[in-house]
């Protein structure tokens, strides 16, 4: 159901509730943007995305993450080879972990490092932190598996994280869509020199031949039309979302993984057929554009008020800033594209940079995310209180204590935090970004700015040789 009162907007369904307080963003302004959306043929563009047709015009390819959601959420029917084979290959690799763990002494653990950066890091890290497993588990003594990530080109990261570990008990998941990512390749070479166990490596990539040239024989593949920031829907999640470390995880019908994809798939269906949901997501996009271009609010803080979602702002930062960080289209009236996105775990942020939000002079908006599972928790109370202070201020403060009262706020409250709800929320955010890109007439699926950095770094290093 929807309900609107002046500048307040409320949306609710059985997964989440949402409330926005954006001063002067009226129903009339929303309808003006809606006209622009119709002129941009928004409905058709969403159908093209979900239908697997070309939407990435600069690279002349589709964006297949909605199709992967559909295929992996299916109860029955054929699954493409690359998705069908992934659980089998993953189980074979897991069997090596399990066999080695049986040889370990009582207090030893099997160490599993994911070598990856960008989407190969942000998505898996989020999933491991979010759900009860060896990486985010409150009682790590219950598991013999220790997960961690190595992301960068600085060899000190690898040396620090592997110090004191036994190569016999250490395995590496190399996640790279292109298998050309400099940081990941540097980490891979360092890991291979350190390990000397070729069977302890597995690659997840859309470039299997390149992986095999590095001597990796165990390779899980996915399509190149899955962008890095959408790879949470690809086999890159294969080892990072499961019920427990048993062979049940590697069954393609594992419920935790299935429910994550089902949640995403539900948002795909809602954006196609649920008018209330469509209006909710369009309002997110329209208000972002309006604030950035009309009100000079070019910065947005994303704040999570659930410890398990502490990395969600980082995940959304990459999704938004890589997708919308493009030059303005000369034919579009809006000349400012993506906003600056920053954020973090709300309770920590309150003791860091909230002072500037509450009393500073910068124009900043806020997205706040919490779960209603524990309505009496301090974190939940902080989310509700801070959202109200941002949008409404407080009347009973002395002059020096006065705080801003005009910060545009979007408050997202999940009914519960589970894989289905997280899949739904992430997909909702993807459509927020996609709709924004359609109105701005820019391509959210390429990233030539990132590529320029890679090209010129290689040239610099070549000149030093």
SS element count, helices: 16
The coarse silhouette is: globular
Strand tally is 14
Strand content: 15-25%
Q: By helix and strand content, what is the structural category? A: alpha/beta
User: What strand line-up does the widest sheet have?
Assistant: 1-2-3-14-13-11-12
What is the N-to-C succession of helices and strands? EEEHHEEHHEHEHEHEHEHHEHEHHEHEHH
Give a short summary of the structure.
The chain has helices at 27-39, 42-50, 65-73, 81-103, 119-130, 155-162, 182-195, 208-213, 255-273, 275-294, 312-324, 346-349, 354-359, 378-392, 419-440, 448-464, and strands at 2-5, 8-12, 16-21, 54-56, 61-62, 110-115, 145-150, 170-175, 201-205, 219-221, 299-304, 340-345, 364-371, 409-414.
Describe the structure.
- This protein has 465 residues and is α/β, with parallel strands linked by helices.
- It contains 16 helices and 14 strands.
- It has helices at 27-39, 42-50, 65-73, 81-103, 119-130, 155-162, 182-195, 208-213, 255-273, 275-294, 312-324, 346-349, 354-359, 378-392, 419-440, 448-464; strands spanning 2-5, 8-12, 16-21, 54-56, 61-62, 110-115, 145-150, 170-175, 201-205, 219-221, 299-304, 340-345, 364-371, 409-414.
- The strands form 3 sheets. A 7-stranded mixed β-sheet has the order 1-2-3-14-13-11-12, with helices on both faces. It has a 5-stranded parallel β-sheet with strand order 7-6-8-9-10, with helices on both faces.
- Helix 5 (119-130) runs antiparallel to helix 11 (312-324) and helix 9 packs parallel to helix 15 (419-440).
- It starts with a strand and ends with a helix.
- Mean pLDDT is 90; it is low at 1-5, 134-141 and 245-253.
